[in-house]
Design goal:
Blueprint: E1 6-10, E2 16-21, E3 25-32, E4 38-44, H1 62-67, E5 75-79, E6 85-90, E7 99-100, E8 106-113, H2 116-119, E9 137-144, E10 150-155, E11 179-184, E12 190-194, E13 199-203, E14 210-214, E15 223-227, E16 233-237, E17 249-254, E18 259-264, E19 279-282, E20 288-292, E21 297-301
Antiparallel strand pairs: 1-2, 3-4, 4-5, 5-6, 7-8, 8-9, 9-10, 11-12, 12-13, 13-14, 15-16, 16-17, 17-18, 19-20, 20-21
Length: 308
Amino acid sequence: PIFSYSTYLLDMQGRIVHEWKHNFIQPQFAKLLPNGNLAVLGTHKSLLLPPNAVPNSPSSSLEAHVRRQGGAASTLQELDWDGALIWSYDNPFIHHDFCRLDNGNTLIPEWVALPDEISHKVKGGRKRSKKQMPPMLGDDIIEIDIDGNTVSRWETWKLFDPRKDPICPLEDRSEWTHLNSVDQQSNGDIVISCRENHRIAIIDRKSKQFIWKFGEDSLGHQHHATALANGNVQVFDNGLHGHHLPASRIIEINPRTNDIEWQYSAVPKDQFFSAHISGAQRLTHNNVLICEGTGGRILEISRTGDPV
């Protein structure tokens, strides 16, 4: 099969020790929650596009347009150990990632159609005939409560600059930012990663404004920006379409100075390269768990870069 319809829990020897079978959705991204339940982001099978679907073709339906984008989802579900549904939130415009908060609420990205006056100002991307162009998509971040109500919203497309934060020239103009990760710092501020314009940023929770933005000339279609306990941000820099030869790395950036305080890359550098997806998680003992998504490899490294 092209897709797996299960989520697996592996032990340290790589053996499957538990499986959650998803009868109604294609799972995309899952996390174990502190209560032992599984939270899984996925797409209802009835909404999956056929393999021969035309990417980014014009359509009168915004929902049809977002279904063609990478990372599209339609439901976030919480399952117990036996796979019973405990909670769910359905929204055809959610995508990529989520962050469960201590108060039980959840942060999740949501695609929105940009106003024409904004999309026309956005620089970059591959030019096409206007007749071929569906609405350009931007990203909001919504916070939903346990009842599925939206209690707060951050409109990231109002924070980026259409000229200073352009779309990568090798990418399509169907999306401006393509927000692919969301996380929360200990003070409540929000960390995001946006692939199409090579940017990571921190949003002040209260003012809803950027307090830090990074990436120009430094990142290449990165994924999985996460908040670290020391206030720094860790990200999987895929290294695609950047300003250097394609090679991936894991970097830790100090938002106060913009200094890269730690990084992992291969020797030679091109021995570690994952062009898309992928991620890196800082573990409690300070090692880093890396998912090299393109090749399907998971490895744990020490702070000295040694595989453990």
